[in-house]
Write a structure and sequence with these properties.
The protein is mostly helical. The termini are far apart. InterPro entries: Cyclin-like_sf, Cyclin_PHO80-like.
């Protein structure tokens, strides 16, 4: 049974002031403490996650092209990149899935675990399917309420049958390691916050 996203925040608040206060500030700046109720607002964590994924995809594809490394083709790979950008896709998932912002941090952890356990590189051919699959799994594990696979399939632009296969492949790929402790969650929040300063440095350099 998974943890609740608000329980995770409570666990953060229970930490000592020396460590907990800074992490809670990052929580707030990432938009992880905002409620889904009321006016629709895109939390900052989505922008930073999208930026990190886009940079990773670009870096991997340049490296693979230079070294002529062939990526392992799996059911997560499409024949060509989808017309929708990573940022647009992440925003769409958030808008229609009604999952908590924390799900995207947990999904990020899951994707890293999956990539570490396989020979797959994150590219424009697989990043969208990995996203919809990992976010759906994270929502099931983190949130009290979530939609079924058929609904997530429509949101992600795939068939229900395909998403079912993707889910099972993903779960076996991470050995069903769905638990994310507070320290790991905090580390990934720091990583996303760092993406903000790294992205700014790149913009200044151009």
């Amino acid at each position: 049974m998974g943890f609740n996203s608000m329980q995770l925040i409570s666990d953060m608040e229970a930490l000592s002031p020396d460590t907990g206060s800074t992490e809670l500030e990052i929580y707030q700046t990432l938009g992880l403490k905002e409620s889904r109720k009321g006016v629709f607002k895109i939390p900052r964590v989505l922008m930073l996650l999208s930026s990190l994924l886009e940079r990773t995809v670009q870096k991997n594809e340049i490296l693979m092209e230079k070294t002529e490394i062939k990526d392992a083709v799996t059911i997560f790979h499409g024949l060509k990149p989808p017309p929708v950008s990573i940022r647009q896709y992440v925003d769409r998932i958030f808008k229609y899935s009604a999952c908590s912002p924390s799900c995207f941090v947990v999904a990020h952890v899951y994707v890293d675990r999956f990539l570490q356990q396989t020979d797959i590189h994150l590219t424009s051919l697989n990043v969208h399917r990995l996203l919809i699959t990992s976010v759906m799994i994270a929502a099931k594990f983190v949130d009290d309420a979530f939609f079924n696979n058929g609904y997530y399939a429509r949101v992600g632009g795939v068939s229900t049958e395909e998403l079912n296969r993707l889910e099972m492949k993903f779960l076996f790929g991470i050995d069903f390691r769905l638990q994310v402790n507070v320290n790991t969650f905090g580390k990934y929040c720091y990583r996303l916050e760092k993406e903000s300063s790294d992205g700014l440095q790149i913009e200044r350099a151009i």
